[in-house]
Amino acid sequence: MYFATSHLHHFPPSPPPSPPVTCAQGHSSTLIILTDEGGSICLLCLSNLISNPISPTVHVSYVLSQLSIALSQPSFRQTFFTFHSHFLISPLVGVLSSFDDEPIAKQTMDLIMQLCEPPDCDVHAEFVARLADRLSSGSLAWSRRQLHTLHCLGLLLDYQKDHSYCLEETDALIFNLVSGLHLPSEDIQGEILFVLYKLFLLNVSQDSEDPPSLFGHFPKLLHSALAVLMKAQRDDVRLNCIAFLTVIMQRGLFQTTSIIGSRSRSSYDADHLMETNEQIPDGPLAILFAEAVKGPLLSSDNQVQIAVLDLLYLYLSRKDVLENEIQVFVEENIADYAFEVLRLSGCKDSTIKSCIQLLDILATAEQAFRQRLAIGFMALVPVLHHVAEIPFHPVQTETLKLIWNSVENCPGVVSKSQVEEISLSLTGMLKKNLDGEIGMLPETLALVCSIFVALMKCSSSCGISSFLLSIQDASRNCILTCLINYGKYPGQLLNSLYLLKEAYSYGYGMNPSSSINTELRRSIIDVCKTHILPWFMKSLHEMEDEDIPAAILENFYSILLHDSDTETKIFANVLLTSSWFCFAYGCLGFFPSEKMKNKVYLIFGVMADIILGVDSGRCISDAAPHLPSDPIDLLFLLGHKSSQNVELASCQLAVLLLLYISSLYDDRIADDKLVLASLEQYILLNGSENMHGASVLGILINLYALYRGLVKVSYQIPYSPEAERIVFHLLSEKDWDLLSTRIHITSMKWLFQQEKICNVLSAQLLKFCRCNCSNASQINIHGEANQTIDVYVMTELVASGDNFLGMLMVFLLGEAGEQYSKCDIVSVVNTIKHIIEISPSASDQFCMHGIAGAIKNLYYKFGHSSSSDTFMATSELVSCILQAVQSESLSDDEPWVSIVVKIVDYFIPSIAADGWTPGTLISIGILSMVLHHSVNQVMVEASKTIILSTPLLSLVNTTIADACSKGPSLVDQDEGTRSGEALVFVLSLVFFSLRSLPAILPGIMDCQYLLDPTNVPQPLSHISIQCHDLCKLLHFGSIPIKLLSSQCLLELFSGIEDERSRKSDTLEFRADYLLSIMAVLEGQIFSSDMSVAMNCSLCLCMLIGWQDVETEVSAIQRNNWCRFIIEELVMSLAAPSLISQSFMIHHKPAIHIAVALLSGKKVPQWMTSIFDESCIFAITRNITNSNLSAELVFLFRKLLNYGVLNDEHISALNQLFQECRKCIYTDKLQHEEKTLNVAAASDYLGKVCQFLISNGMESTRFQSGKWELLEEIDLFSKCLQRDDITNLQDHGATLRHSNRDKQTPKYLDHYVVPNAKQWPAVPVPLAPGSAARSSAT
Fold first, then answer.
1. Which of 319, 796, 889, 1311 has the highest Cβ tally under 10 A?
2. 195 CB contacts (<8 Å, ≥6 apart)?
3. What's the pLDDT score for residue 890?
C-alpha cells in the first residue's frame, strides 16, 4: 500500500507532480487518486489495509482520517464519486464488524455518512443493504461490533427518509433483531429498537399495506418490545422503544385481535410463525402494556413521559377499543401515574396536553376511574388555571370535563379553597370571553355552566362569599355572552339559563337573608329585567323551537315564586309594565304547545299572587289546563251562564282575573269594544247569581268601569243600559268595598262621574277618610310604576275637576258636621287638607264647590270650647286652603267674614287666658293670609274686619311695644321661643295689613304719622306700625325679626313714595329724624342675611332719592358711611379672581346704593374719585359673561350717563355684552337661582310661618334672570346711540317698590328670600301653588 502526501507545510509548495503509473505495490494507476497537497491515495491499498483484521489500529485510523480529508477536496471528491464510489463500501462495512475500537468505529461511520452525502448516487442504499445483510446472517453473534453495525444502520436509515430499500433477508433481519432484544445490554436493545422503528416507519411510508414479511414477527416483537420497555432503565432506550411501539400502533397492530388475525393476513411460513408464537409470554397484552409504561411514566425525562403518555392515548383512542380494555389500564393504576406526572409537571404545556388527553380517555371507565379521580383531583386545579388563561387551549375542554366529573361525582373531595380557586378561574374565562380577549367553544361554555352548578351542590361551597360573587359575575357574563352570540351559537343560551336558574335557587340556600345572598338574587333579577327580558321580547320571532322560550319562562317563574323579596316584586312590576300579557299570548302564538301554555299561565298565577296577595292566582293555575291559548277564546268563555257548571265558573273567574291584572297595567290583550261586550254579556247572564264573593265583585266592577271609561275617552259606542243598571244595583246591594282591591285611575274617574251612585260613593269616601286618617289601610291605585299609593289618586281626580269627587268631599264635610262623630269630622278635614297639600290646585275646586260654607258651619257648631281638636284641625284646613288657593276662586265673601269673626273671637280671649299657643298663632296666620288675598280684591269685607278690629289692633300694638321695650335683649327672642314666634306672626300680620290697605281702604293710611308722628294728629285706628318701632326691631332684633321689620319698612317707604308722587308738598321730613333712620339702614347693608341687606338698601335708596335738597345734601355731606360702602364695592369689583356669581349677589345692595347716588340731582364729588379711569378699567377687565348681572349693567349705564366711561371702557363693555348675548342665545349662560334654604319644619305652625315670610318676600329677589340682563344690555346700547346722553330717561328706578306707578326694570320685581340658615324651625318650601298666585307687587 502506498500513500504519498506532503506534511512539510513550512516548505514552499512544489509544482504538482505527474500522476504515478503505479503505486508501491504495483497497483494500476486507475485506482490512484491525487490529492490537492501533491500526494495520492491508492484505493486498493487502502481497502486491503482496513480489510485486514490484524492491521494496526493506528494505521487504520490514520488511513480513514486521510481519506476523510481528501474527500473534502473538490477534485478528489469528483474523481472518487465519478469512478470509485462503490469501491470502499464492502471494506468499510467490514471495518465495523472487524474492529472493537470505538474511535475507529466512529471514524468509519463518519466516513460512511460522508460517502452517502451526494444525493444522486445509490451508495446510501448499498450501504444499507450491506449492513442489513451482515445483520441478517444466521451465524451472527451479538457483540460490541454488531452494536457499531446497528448504530451505523440506524444512522443510514435516519439519514435519508425518501429512499426505498430492497432488503432481501428482511425476515432473517427482523428475526435476528427480535432475538437481540433479549440480550441484557441496553445499548444493543436501544439500537435494535431504533432500527426497528426506522424499518417499520420506512415500510409504512412506502406502502399503505403492511409488508407480509413483517406480520409473522408482530406477536413476539410486541411482547419483546414491551418487556424491554418494562425493564429498561435508560431513557434513550425507553424513548426508542416508545417510538417503535408508536409506529406499529399507528398501523393498528397493537392489539390482541391483530396478533391473532395476523395469520390470515400473512403468507409467512406457518411453521415459523408457530415457532415464533411459542415464545409469547402468557397474559393479556393490555396488562403487559400497562406494566411496561409505568417505568417511563416515572422517568425524570419529560420527553419520555410525554412520549409514553401519547402512546397510551394513541392506543386507548382507537375506534375499536373496548371499555374493559380501558378499565384494565385504570385498574392497573395508570390514571394514578398520570395524575402524578401532572402534579409534578410544573404546568408545562406539553405535559398537560398529554396527561389530560389520556385522563379524558380513562374517564370513560366511570366506575373504576371515579376513585382515582378523587385522589388526583388536586392536580387538576392548577391545570385549570393554566388552560383557562390560554385561548382555545387544546385540552381546555377536556380539563373542564375532568373538573366537572370530579365535582359532580366526588363532591366531598372539593375543599373550600378549591371551590374559590375553580370559581375564580372560570369567572375569569367568562369575563375575558365577554371582553373579547379570548374565545370559547360552545362545549367549553356548557362545561363551565355545569361546573358552577355542580359546585353549588357541594357542601363545601356554603358560606364562601367569594364564591357567591363569582356566581354573580359568571351568571351575568355567561348570559351576556350567549345573547351576543345567539345567532352563531343559539344552543349556548340554554346552558346559561340553567346556570342562572340554579344560581337564584342557590341564593335561597343557607342564610337567604344575608346581604351577600340578597345581592346575588338582586343581580340575577337585574340580569333578567335588564338584558334577558328586552332581548326575549325583541328576538322571539327569530327562535325556531320552544326550548329557549320555555327556559326563559322557567327562570322568570322561579324568580316570581319567591314573592317575599322587594326585588322580586319590582321584577314582577317590570314584567307587567312591559306589556307582559300581550307578549305572553304572542309567545303562545309562536309556540302553541301544552308545555308553553302551562308555563305562561303559571307565571300569570304567581303574578296575581304578588299583585293581589297570596293564593289570589290559584284560580288561574287550577284552570290553566282548560284555558285557551288565544285571548279571544278567553273572552268567549265569558258569554256563557255558569251557575250550573263549576268548571266553567272557575275558568270565568280566571279570565276576569287575567283581564283585571292586565288592565291595571294598561296591557290590552283584546280590543276594548270586544272586552266591554263580553263583560256586559257576562253581567247579563250571571249578574243575578252569586258573584263568588266580594273580591270577584270588586274585580268585575273595576273592569266594567275601566272599559266604560276607555270607550268614553277614545270613541263613542253603544253600551247596555241593562248591564249598567245591574252593576249599579250590585254596588248598592252587595258588600262592595272600594278599598279592598286595586283599581285603575280610569275606573275610579268613571265611577265618580256617575251621579246615580253618589250616595254609595259618599259612604266609600267616608270609609276612605277614616282609613287614610288612621293609616290602617290604603287604597291601591294603578299609577306610574304601579306603586301602592292612597290619597294621591283622589287628589288627581279632585284637581282634574271633571268628576263629582270634589263636590262629594265638600258635601261629606258638610254632612260630617251634622251627622257624624268628631273623629269622622277630623278624618274628613285631614283628608281634604292632605289632598290640598299634594295638589294645591285642588283647593280651587273645593272653594268653587263652597267649602267655605261647610267650614263656617264647623266653626260655629264645634267651637274651641266644645272641641279643641276639631277647631284646631279646621283651622289648619283653612290655613292650608288659603295658602294654596288662587285668589280668583275666592268669590264668596260672606262665609269668610263669619270665619274671620269667629277666629278673632276665639284667639283674643285665648291669648288673654293662655298666652300664645299654636292655635292662636295659626289664627293670626289665617288673618294674614286673608289680607294677602285681599290685594286682588277678594275677601274685602273680611279684610276690613281684620284691619279695623279694635281688639286685634290693641293686641298688635301691645306686642310691638313690648318687643321694642326689650332693647338689646330682643336679639334673644327668635323663632325658638314662644314670644319670638308671636312677634314673627304679628309682624307678618302688620306687613300684610300695610300691603292690603291701599287696595281695600285707599287713603286711610297716614304716611306722615307713620314716618314721624311728631305734631301729627292720630288718624283712624287700624293695624299699622310706626317707622321708629320698625327701626328698633330692625336694629335690635334677631335675623327673622330683622327680615320682617325690613320688609315692613320697605312697604311703608313704598307707600310714602306713592304719596309723595301724588302730593309732593304735603309730607314733611325732619332732617335729624331721617338721618337716624339712615343710620339704622346703613348699618344693615352688610347684614349676613341678604334679604335684610337688600330691603335696607332699597329703603336707603328711596331716602336718598327724596327731593328734599337740603336734607339730601347735608346728609350726604355729613355721612361718610355711603362712601365707605361704595369704596368697598369698587375695591371688590376691581380685585382680580374674586368675582363670582355668589360674590355678585352679596354686592347687589351696595350696587343699588351706588346707582341711587349717581341718580341724584347732585352727585357727591367723591364718587368721581372712586370711579376713576383705572378703577373702571380694572372692573371691566375683571367682569366676565359668567358673573355679569343686570344690576351691574345698570351701574355701568349710570356711569355712562355720569360721563366717567371713556371709549376704551365702552369698547370693552360692548365686547363683553356681545359675548354675553351669544351665551344667552345658545343657552350656555346659566344663572343659578337662589332659593330659600331653611330647615324643614317639624310642625304645621312652622309651615304657616314660612309661607307668610316667603309671600312677604316674593316682591324682592336678588338674582336677576338672563332676559332681564338682555334688557339692561339693550338699554345700555340705546344710551350709546343717543345724541344727548344727559337727557337719558332713567329706566333704573330700582329704588321704587314694584307695586307703585313708576317704571322699574323687571328684574327688580321678583326678589326671593335669601338663604336663611337661622330658621331651623321654619319650613323651606313655599306653599303649594304659590308660584301661580297673583301678587300685589
1. 1311
2. 150, 153, 154, 157, 177
3. 87
Please write the tens of the pLDDT for every residue from 191-230.
888 888 888 777 644 444 555 555 556 777 888 888 888 9
Element (H, E) at 247: helix 235-250
1172 CB neighbour count, 10 Å cutoff: 11
Res. 270: pLDDT tops 70: no
* Location of C-alpha cell 365707605: 1124
**Residue 166: φ, ψ to 5°:** -110, 95
CA atoms within 13 A on the CB side of 445: 30
Residue whose entry in the numeric block shows the C-alpha cell 343659578: 1232
Between 1136 and 927, residue with greater pLDDT: 927
Q: What is the DSSP letter of 397?
A: H
DSSP for 206-219, please give it: H-SSPPHHHHTTHH
Residues 5-43 pLDDT 10s: 433 334 444 444 455 567 878 787 788 888 888 888 888
Spatial neighbors of 1124 by CB under 8 A, at least 6 apart, are: none
pLDDT at 891 (0 to 100): 75
Per DSSP (E only), the strands in 560-698 are none
Rounded distance between C-alpha atoms, residue 762 and residue 811, angstroms: 9
128, 165 Cβ separation under 8 angstroms:
yes
Q: How far apart are CA 80 and CA 70, in angstroms?
A: 10
Sign of CA dihedral 360, 361, 367, 372: negative
Measured at the alpha carbon of residue 324, what is the angle toward residues 322 and 330, in degrees to the nearest 5?
115
For 945, the grid coordinates are 274686619
Q: Are the CB atoms for 669 and 658 separated by under 8 Å?
A: yes
pLDDT band at 1328 (very low <50, low <70, confident <90, very high): very low
Give the best-scoring range by mean pLDDT among 68-77, 282-291, 449-458.
449-458
Torsion of CA 432, 435, 436, 438, to 10 degrees: 0
Mean pLDDT of 371-385: 91
Nearest to 1187 by CA among 1126, 1128, 1149, 1229: 1229
Q: Tell me which DSSP letter residue 251 carries.
A: T
Could you tell me if 370 and 326 are in contact, meaning their C-beta atoms sit under 8 angstroms apart? no
Q: Per DSSP, what are the bridge partners of residue 1260? A: 1311
Q: Are the C-beta atoms of residues 1 and 52 closer than 8 Å to each other?
A: no
For cell 280610569, what's the residue?
Answer: 746
Residue 1323: the pLDDT is 29
Is residue 1009 packed enough to be buried (19+ CB in 10 Å), middle (13-18) or exposed (0-12)?
A: middle
Kindly give the residue spans of alpha helices, DSSP state H, lying in 84-185. Answer: 89-98, 102-115, 123-135, 144-159, 170-180
pLDDT of 1180: 85
**HSE (side-chain half, CA atoms, 13 Å) at 147:** 15
Residue of 712 and 104 predicted with greater confidence: 104
- Is 1043 exposed, middle or buried, given 0-12, 13-18 or 19+ CB atoms closer than 10 A? buried
Residue type, 403: I
CA 1172 to chain centre: 59
**Contact of 1153 with 1126, CB cutoff 8 Å:** yes
Crossing angle of helices 1207-1225 and 1190-1202, in 10° steps, is 160
User: 1220-1224: which pairs have CB atoms within 8 A and are 24 or more residues apart?
Assistant: 1220/1185, 1220/1188, 1220/1269, 1220/1273, 1221/1270, 1221/1273, 1223/1185, 1224/1266, 1224/1269, 1224/1270
Percent of the chain at pLDDT exceeding 70: 81
Average pLDDT, the chain: 80
Mean pLDDT of 810-819: 80
Q: What is the pLDDT of residues 1010-1030, one digit of tens each?
A: 776 665 555 668 888 888 888
In angstroms, the CA 671 to CA 102 distance is 104
